[in-house]
Amino acid sequence: MMTVNDIQNLIELLNEAPEVAELSVTAPDGSEIRLKRSPFAAKPPADHSADTSGGDLLEAAYDSVSTLSIDAEPVLSAIAATMVGVFHSAKPPLEGGAVVKAGQRVGSIESMKLMNDVVSTAEGVVVNVLIEDGLPVEYGQVLFQVAT
Questions:
Q1: Are residues 62 and 94 in the same domain?
Q2: Of 44, 53, 60, 100, which has fewest CB within 10 angstroms of its CB?
Q3: What is the Cβ-side half-sphere exposure of residue 116, based on CA atoms within 13 angstroms?
């Protein structure tokens, strides 16, 4: 998983290499980030020390414009079943767009007439609900996906 520091390092790397227009990196976990310069990105500053005319105004204006866009996919974390049994939703049931905190109860699994809590392992926004109340689940089955 890429951290904010990793992304900042990539931006600095791109800023230090004005000849590079686009940089794409895939992390070991499969997440990908693409940094791309705008067509209006700044050129490296011109050396005007020997120029007695004060330099070209158009070039100076062009040098003052710098934009960089970042296209990044959200990192998805899975909330998975911790045992075999029948899944029962928390009340109220989680839906897409709901905010969850790490350790929050999101449902329970009934196994051998015992109810066992299922808790969120990540903090973020629920993107996908992959289970319905009352359906059987297997160990490790992904029940929810959370964008972190």
A1: no
A2: 53
A3: 14
Span 53-85, pLDDT tens digits: 444 444 443 343 444 444 456 688 999 999 999
Residues 26 and 68 in one domain: yes
Q: What is the largest CA-CA distance in the chain?
A: 88
Distance of CA 112 to the CA centre of its chain: 38
φ and ψ at residue 11, rounded to 5 degrees: -65, -45
Q: Which structural domain range is residue 99 located in? A: 76-147
pTM score of the predicted model: 0.53
Hey, CA dihedral for 136, 139, 141, 147, is it positive or negative? positive
Residue 82 DSSP label: S
Are 89 and 113 within one domain? yes
